[in-house]
Write a structure and sequence with these properties.
Strand order of the largest sheet: 2-1-3-4-5
Strand content: 15-25%
Number of helices: 8
Shape: elongated
CATH architecture of the largest domain: 3-Layer(aba) Sandwich
CATH superfamily of the largest domain: Response regulator
Order of helices and strands: EHEHEHEHEHEEEEHEHHEE
Helix content: 25-40%
CATH class of the largest domain: Alpha Beta
């Protein structure tokens, strides 16, 4: 009689905790591991960013008061490539702090001291929401062009290309929306903020410089295509004629 073949066990969701308080890190590790989550810990913003790149967690719990940089900066840098839920856990309870964190891409905000039951309930809700979805795209490849969103590195034919911060942010925003038109106003708002949505001349200058660095010689645009009067489009498959 053949024995019934058991299905492989499901992977435990992976949670990264970024908090400078050792007591909080220990408590969260104990709480989360007891519920069968895989837990990674980081005590600084830099360590948290590195751990996120290395482990690509399913969810991140982030403190705003870190010793080396603001948690808001960490949140902003994560959102350059990380698409999973970010739950802020902070002693700051002012509305301005909550709004700033949510505007920068946080999905939730709890204040310390916190209820373990409430935190676990919110984690379960966020993980249910993204269950089965591909959470994070770290690298985007199109033809000879490779963009590492996490490390903010761009290569063409394997050779590194030096981009300014603004040039990289423009390229990343276009690449994340590959084969879709991104309006000039949307690009300006994403890269510079709402006060600059009318400065299309500045955008055109930066796009021109970006093209000089990543496009093939000869003035032919393979990657960044202009949609006249509207904006730009990143060619996800540059070998297919536009």
């Amino acid at each position: 009689m053949k024995s019934e073949q058991s299905s492989p066990p499901e992977r435990s969701p992976r949670i990264l905790v970024i908090d400078d308080e050792e007591q909080i890190r220990r408590a969260l590790r104990s709480i989360l591991q007891a519920r069968h989550y895989t837990v990674d810990l980081a005590a600084t913003g830099a360590a948290g960013l590195e751990a996120a790149v290395d482990t690509t967690p399913d969810l991140i719990v982030l403190d705003l008061s870190l010793p080396d940089m603001s948690g808001l900066v960490v949140c902003e840098q994560l959102r350059a490539w990380y698409e999973g839920p970010i739950v802020v856990l902070s002693v700051r309870d002012a509305d301005a702090d909550k709004i700033a964190a949510l505007d920068l891409g946080a999905d939730d905000y709890l204040t310390k001291p916190f209820s373990a039951g409430e935190l676990l309930a919110r984690i379960r809700a966020h993980l249910r929401r993204i269950s089965g979805a591909e959470l994070s795209v770290r690298e985007i490849k199109a033809g000879d062009l490779m963009i590492d969103l996490a490390k903010r590195v761009v290569t063409v034919k394997g050779q590194p290309v030096h981009l300014t911060r603004t040039e990289f942010d423009i390229l990343a925003e276009l690449a994340r929306n590959a084969d879709r038109v991104v309006t000039s106003h949307a690009l300006l708002n994403s890269v510079w903020g709402p006060d600059y949505v009318s400065d299309t001349q500045t955008l055109r200058v930066h796009v021109s410089h970006l093209r000089q660095k990543i496009e093939p010689q000869g003035g032919v645009s393979r990657y960044i295509l202009t949609e006249p009067g509207v904006g730009f489009r990143f060619a996800g498959d540059p070998d297919i004629p536009a």
